Amino acid sequence: MGEFELIERFFTRAPRRSPLGVGDDCALLQPRPGMQLAVSSDMLVEGRHFLSTADPRRLGHKALAVNLSDLAACGAEPLAFTLALALPGADEAWLGAFAEGLLALADAHGCELVGGDTTRGPLCIGITVFGEVPAGGALLRSGARPGDDLWVSGTLGDARLALEAFRGTVSLPQPVFEAARLRMEQPSPRVALGMALRGIANAAIDISDGLLGDLGHVLRRSAVGATVDADAAAALLGARALGWPAPPEAMRDLVLAGGDDYELAFAAPPDARAAVEAAGRTTGTPVTRIGRIDAEAGLRIVDAQGVPLGRDWQGFDHFR
Ligand code: ADP
Ligand code: MG
Q1: Contact predicate 253/232, CB 8 Å
Q2: CB 118 less than 6 A from any atom of ligand 1
Q3: What is the largest CA-CA distance in the chain?
Q4: Which of 71, 85, 126, 138 is the most core-located residue (most Cβ within 10 A)?
Q5: Which of 175, 292, 135, 156 is CA-nearest to residue 224?
Q6: CA-to-CA distance for 214 and 320, rounded, in angstroms?
Q7: pLDDT at 313 over 70
Q8: Ligand 1 pocket residue status of 312, Cβ below 6 Å
Q9: What is the mean pLDDT of the chain?
Q10: Which long-range contacts link 273-278 to residues 24+ away (Cβ below 8 Å)?
Q11: Is the pLDDT of residue 316 over 50?
Q12: Residue to probe by mutation, ligand 1, list 118, 125, 127, 129, most atoms within 8 Å of CB
């Protein structure tokens, strides 16, 4: 199977929202009047971001999910994406399953595949997503204000727990492992919540490298600090709800520094609490308050009693 047959078979579908999709030198996008384009790229590299044994359907899902998560963090509505694919060979079963996982998530979000590039090489998946957001209405990392509440969506830490189980550093009961593995392999980008938080949240980020590491980006860009209740955060470990008797220290580590969560962390003024909760309800996304934004720079981690935990947490850093 040649390059063009491969593109035709697995990655070409009639565009619906975009004026021009796969097949020409460029695709054409038409944002609605008054909207800005939000653009983001994320790359998944075998051995770095996933194992060679990864299920191709789930990999297709995840490759797009991590990109949609960036749109979610900006409050943008998905519009279209491009796919740059390096493949060691044209394995039809693999390609079929990969495309299925990818395009099922794309359809669920009305996000069209409009182009890309295909080449032979070590397996690598690069996606660029395009979304729409009302001009001036994007949620940014830079908008957090002292006094804001600090919120997170969903559950945290389970993707990292699954990774640790794969590495053999922890042993999990089968149902807990399966649930955690699903969080690692098939994250749910919080697109609807991000859009619902427009005009409510002052700042947002999606959590890919660990809550504290990513929160650090918000604090730097907003020139503020924060206090985080480690116990309120630790309660968000999904495995705990499944009865996994995690040691408290391990739970804090997983939730605060785990990574690969693809939940949203966001800051909103206290008088917007009811609006935040309504946004969570209408989009079917749990939202939890885990701290506050301070004028004083730096990150203070405290326990449920407000006692500082004297430890240094760091987000997962690819080059460490
Ligand atoms: P060019 O030589 O102009 O870069 P290509 O020959 O690489 O174009 O690709 C032909 C068409 O197929 C283009 O419209 C391109 O966007 C699309 N395309 C290539 N690879 C993919 C892919 N993996 N998924 C979707 N579309 C793709
Ligand atoms: Mg090309």
Answers
A1: no
A2: yes
A3: 63
A4: 71
A5: 292
A6: 16
A7: no
A8: no
A9: 93
A10: 273/149, 275/200, 276/149, 276/151, 276/197, 276/200, 276/201
A11: no
A12: 118
